[in-house]
Amino acid sequence: MSQTLQELGEYIKATVSDRVSAYHLVHGELVLTTDLNHIVPLLTFLRDDEACLFSQLTDITAVDYPARAERFDVVYQLLSMKKNCRIRIKLPVAENVGVPSVVEVYPAAGWYEREAWDMYGVFFMYNPDLRRILTDYGFEGHPLRKDFPLTGFVEMRYDDDAKRVVYEPVKLNQAYRSFDYLSPWEGPNYAPAPLPGDEKVAKNG
Fold first, then answer.
1. What count of other Cβ atoms lies within 10 Å of the Cβ of residue 47?
2. Rg, C-alpha atoms of the chain
3. Is the pLDDT of residue 199 over 80?
4. How far apart are the C-alpha atoms of 85 and 52, rounded to whole Å?
5. Which of 126, 127, 124 is nearest to 61 (CA)?
6. Residue 148 vs residues 39, 140, 145, 172: alpha-carbon distances, Å
7. What is the pLDDT of residues 43-55, one digit of tens each?
């Protein structure tokens, strides 16, 4: 399979060299790198070319590298059912730079782009419905960015007394617990206060 993917990478690079800046095999998977101006033409080629036929877009996500000038890698995962093959396309993009939507090429991209926008803040130009999809409508920030606070800022819950949704500062209170790290089959002795159900063991023992 690696040889086949290597040949496919060489074919794609030779055929649309202006759309692919680099290609390489990583853990037995073909990875192409492109840029903002060529992401739509490249995906169109990969979908329609007879040697590729990547008819399915299975995912769009992002990877955050805060120290880089091009902070994000937008990652597209494609599947060719006819060729029984997968391919990954990486698109480096700076923060606050719009990425062309690929909804016209793969209609399934609509929700994937919404998720990448919601989680990472990558803006997709010309997406017909770029709203948050996983977080609350009033949520601030993008949770999968590496500079996002681990606990967030506020938590949301329904207050039964107030009969409405309320926002409160995050509290991570946890009562002290003692762990004995014993399996249930070793029969730990929790004297003088046995756990519920221990009395059955005493009767049958």
1. 18
2. 25
3. no
4. 9
5. 124
6. 28, 10, 5, 17
7. 999 999 999 999 9
d(CA 135, CA 194): 43
Residue 13 to residue 19: CA distance in whole angstroms: 8
Encoding tokens for residue 178?
């003692």
Q: Any alpha helices (H) in 2-160, and if so which ranges?
A: 2-15, 39-48, 109-120
Q: In this predicted model, what pLDDT tens digit does every residue of 139-162 receive, in sequence order?
A: 888 999 998 877 667 778 899 999
pLDDT digits (tens, 9 = 90+) for 36-88: 999 999 999 999 999 999 999 999 999 999 999 999 999 999 999 999 999 99
Residue 6 one-letter amino acid: Q
Let me know: does 64 contact 146? Beta carbons within 8 Å: yes
Residue 170 binned pLDDT confidence (cut-offs 50, 70, 90) = confident
Q: Give dist(CA 23, CA 29) in Å, integer.
A: 10
- Closest to 19 in 3D by CA, of 55, 43, 50, 48: 43
Check: CB of residue 11 under 8 Å from CB of residue 4. no
pTM above 0.85, yes or no: no
